[in-house]
Amino acid sequence: MVRILASLVGAAFVFVLGLALFGSIKGVITDPTVPTVESKYHLEHKALSLASDGPFGKFDLEQLQRGFQVYKEVCSACHSLHQVSFRDLSGLGYTDAEVKAIANQWVIEQPSINPDTGEVATRKNIPSDHFPSPFPNEIAARAANNNALPPDLSLMPKAREGGAAYIYSILTGYEEQPAALLKEFPDAKTPLGLHYNPYFATMNIAMPSPLNTDGQVTYADGTSSTKAQMAKDVAAFLTWTAEPSLEQRHRAGLAAFMFLLIFCGLCWGAYKNVWRDKAH
Amino acid sequence: MASFDDLEPPGEPLASHPDLPGAPRRRDFLNIAAVSFAGAGVVAIVLPLINQMNPSADVLAQATTEVDLSKIEPGQGVITSFRKQPLFVRNLTPKEIAEADAVALSELRDPQTLDQRTKAGHKNWLITLGVCTHLGCIPLGIHEGDNRGAYGGYFCPCHGSQYDTAARIRKGPAPKNLFVPEYAFTSDTTVTVG
Amino acid sequence: MSFPWAQHYQPKQPLMKWLDERLPLPRLVYNAVGAGYPVPRNLNYFWNFGVLAGAALAIQIVTGIVLAMHFHSSAAGAFDSVNGTIMRDVNAGWFLRFAHANGASMFLGVVYVHMFRGLYYGSYKAPREMVWLLGVVIFLLMMATAFMGYVLPWGQMSFWGAQVITGFFSAIPLVGESVRVWLLGGYAPDDATLNRFFSLHYLLPFVIAGVIILHIWALHIPGSNNPTGVEVKSEQDTVPFHPYYTAKDGFGVGVFLLLFTVLIFFYPDYLGHPDNYIPANSLSTPAHIVPEWYFWPFYAILRSFTADFILPAKLWGVLAMFGSILLLFFLPWLDSSPVRSANYRPLYRIFFWILVVDVLALGFVGGAEASPGYIILGQVTAAYYFAHFLIIIPIIARIERPRPLPGSITEAVLAKHGRTSSTATALAN
Description:
heterotrimer; A: mainly alpha; Cytochrome Bc1 Complex, Chain D, domain 2; two-stranded antiparallel sheet; two-stranded antiparallel ribbon; 4 strands; 47% helix; C: mainly alpha; Cytochrome Bc1 Complex, Chain C; 17 helices
């Protein structure tokens, strides 16, 4: 009885799937997918290797400091970093006094209340504060950026396929829209207010190229600040903001792995020992 | 090799091998080693599980408070917050200081001098938690016009504990003086507490 | 535990004796996982996966309880409590979060192997039907728990996954939309949804633990199955669970933890989706909404139904998706072959392996984008899945000629070691 009902149900599902399959195949033949501009011209991210890559990766603190400088001087005008606190910067190698100074001198102040009048005000940042947003709310952010919302950067490498390499590719990938593309897809002309970037998913990104000239930032450690270098350094910095505990994770992982390897070895021996007189 | 029907539990010697007395202990050792390793592993895991309940980094970062003393006149006090608890910051008048110094230590339930409860050169600044050491109420006396009790310091309305000008317990059920937290003068008019 | 040669609990320690006389817990443990539970001696490593599933549940419960001490179950606070406070500020918080997230994958991976073991060796057949049914119940509870858990961090995939899955219920005729709104506590996933999912996500693992107790209890009545599918006949066929299988399971747990360690510490985001690191935004749909990998086969089945036939395609998809799991309840009665183990069922074995490939293909389709090529592959593999369980298996059970079974487990083990049973009788007592 069960089998009769089951085979009926099974036949029904198979039949409807057959109909669906027929429809799909027909669709492929009569209505083949038209190649889109993305399918032909979108580029996968460039290769980027950072000191933090791989299971034994460590942060290059000097690179992180340079990247922080790029964030501070270029990106922070529009992009918030609200998961990060000023005190976290000690992970970049800064002393407590330096962290306090960075917080105190940060251009964007922390929202606060005037202690005498109760009116909305701002105050200087202290190390325990999170990085304040450049805009008070989303509407203000969009109003200042042609209706585009600059995303928070705290987790950006983790929030994008390709991670730091994707960020690096976006920052170094701005170019003129190729004439060949326009010829093949005349409707795909970059709209006014957007910028062509083949590494971006829709290939037209609202952010104008932020790193335009070599030497845009003057590095404190004297490293030559080419566009590629600045892009790489800020990508490394964002890798840190996304996961400041990366080095501890790698260290703990190595210790745990070695411990477990030995443990498995001992367990294997114990198992063999227990079973040595039993055929199985 | 693998004999098929054995009634011997593993790890114990077969009666037919008297020439290998040390062998079973070596074999048991492997079992014990494996279990011990497992035990060590469990301990290694339990420690972070317990430690995660300790204050997290953001809570620890809020563990110090800076207080600006410049606006507090002698005879005045302010109440502020330190580690989410009330903090009494009082600017003692010379009369209040003299009154505190005049008390004999033998009269005190929790003997401490005013010098022990303040910083050298800043004897007029009395910084204590505003938490009664009896059962935790906030004593009166920090605001203008508050009842300051018979000893001119703080008065706890819950069960009648009375503190003197140095915030030492004089009468009532509280066992200890108001707690003086760790603090340091970072300038003449600012202190960092905690 | 109905084996007459099972060892009896004889406590030597005075404390254990005292306790056992008043509350027979020591005896219960002894008879369940101690020297008092005889188990076939020929179990292979596929029998480790039940214990591994139990270990994975324990890990999820411990890490989950600890994470719940820091989680904020509000739409405004959830994302930052996970990716801000827990990952950055809580002591070892990053470890707890990665362990819990990857632990879910380990748990479901182990359970899938455990289920396929059951399918291959006929563990669902009489007299173990109840073990199988309880197992399917556990699987359904696990899927619900995993789904709700994934919603909690309130990332883009959390939100849109909740939107899509609760959207299924609106396919039910007449009451569908009301059911959907009832589940959500609103018209779209929001605070109400998040709070109730947190509450239920905390509850269900303990329900799962309870059903697992029933699952093991039901198993211990007939005792474990074994790779030959031949029931235990004599004491020689078995070994006491302790120390033989405690030792083997210890090794299995070690290997499990090794793999788990590699995931947590070196590839913690590999099985996840980048979009879940973007805070939920009800006004922006991600380009490709996909669930976690362990739901991909069912997602593929859902998306394969693109044609209306009496019922709308969407409803077919939902019915098929739930049906693909519910049909497992009927397996003991669909497969009427008296032979359990596929080792002795040559025809069944072929189709078993086709099923494995089919499910892997379905998984692949479920995680891929909905382009025509993948949809066609999904439709073919989904059709095979239903045909396999509902049409092919019953037919095979009727027409198959199984290979001759060994007389006993002992015989099979001896044959493996190149001896005959007459030798064994000579050696035995």
